[in-house]
Design brief:
The protein has about 250 residues and is mainly α. The protein contains 11 helices and 2 strands. The protein has 2 domains: about 55 residues, Orthogonal Bundle (Arc Repressor Mutant, subunit A); about 200 residues, Tetracycline Repressor, domain 2 (Orthogonal Bundle), CATH 1.10.357. The longest helix is centred in the middle third of the chain and has 25 residues. It starts with 10 loop residues before the first helix and ends with a helix. Keywords: DNA-binding.
Amino acid sequence: MEQDRGCGEDVVTRSIRMLADHGYLETTVEQLAQAAGISRATFFRKYGSKEDMVFADHADTLERLELLLRRPGIPAASGLAEGARLVFRHNLDHPARAAARHDLLQGVESLRDREIAMSSRYERVFQAFLQRALPASADRRMTAVALAAATVAVHNAFLRTWLRDPSPAGGEQLVGALGGRIAWLCGAFEVPPGEGGAASDISFVRERTAMRFDDAAAPHSVGSAPIVVVVPQGADPASVAERTARSVYEALRS
């Protein structure tokens, strides 16, 4: 990534912070390019539009995720946990950028819509992996759709927790907890750790450990409650993904 002259932050991070501080609509590409010490044409060539620039690093992260999940023989549960941690660690490695983007998205609805679309791309990568990693069964596609959506929802919940206090120590604690929470998800879908997984119906009731996040961003157990996801045969995969993600998100917030 190109580094800004005289500053340790890269051009993307500085540009996102500038948009957050001075207004997304009010700040022009010319102003961003001038602050970065490059021409307007160079800015467009390297980063595209303002909106493209805000999410510029996701393309590289998605590519790294796909490479990870294409490793031969990687088990379903291991792949999900490693993949979620890879994406989470990208934000830990760029805390100023993650915080600036979070601040910017709070006030720009169109960017929040773009973020949702970006989450869908991560879901599709995880879904494609699960369809390869899970054993053949009548429910494999539906399980892959639901588990991929749940994995992204859990990752995003952990990321929002860290962004409330983006400290390195808190981030490392959450990395470990994220792996454990993905393992719990796989257990809920009857995908055992370290194995390819077992066929399962995605209508299930499982006991889970509720999580609360304190001011230090460290998760810990506070009790248990069931999560219920009931999906009729022949349900639309998009509806399954939305319902599962919503159930997991609400459970983590409780």
